[in-house]
Amino acid sequence: MLTAAQVLAENNFGDTRTGGLAGPMGLFLILLLATATILLIRNMNARLRRLPDRFPQQSAPTDPTRADAAVVDPTDGTGGRDSSTPAPNGHQQHLNG
């Protein structure tokens, strides 16, 4: 009678030395993934280059009671700057302007 340890230890995978397909198949998959990654990066770079440098400003919200009406776009260069808050690295930000 077989014990549970003997059943689990038994090689049920057959002869693993014949064929030898795992190495070449692994290389093929790595090359395929690398090629797909390179093509995706090139595609995204081309799409980013086609974007305009600046997007047109959106119209101001008509309802001043809305919660998002006070949100300031940090990239437009017109928002107030507060250099008293620490930067993410723990140092003070010194902005000229």
Describe the structure in your own words.
By secondary structure, the chain is mainly alpha-helical. The protein is 36% helix and 0% strand. It has two helices and no strands. The longest helix has 29 residues. The radius of gyration is 30 Å and the shape is elongated.
Structure in a nutshell:
By secondary structure, this protein is an all-alpha fold.
Helix count, DSSP H or I runs of 4 or more residues = 2
Give the strand tally: 0
Percent helix, as a range, is: 25-40%
Low-pLDDT residue spans: none
Terminal residue distance: 85 Å
- Please tell me how large the radius of gyration is: 30 Å
Give the averaged pLDDT, no decimals: 75
Q: Per the principal axes of the C-alpha atoms, what is the gross shape?
A: elongated
- Protein structure class: mainly alpha
SSE string, helices as H and strands as E: HH
Strand content: under 5%
The main sheet comes to: none
What structural keywords apply?
mainly alpha, 0% strand, 97 residues
Note the topology.
Elements: H1 4-9, H2 22-50
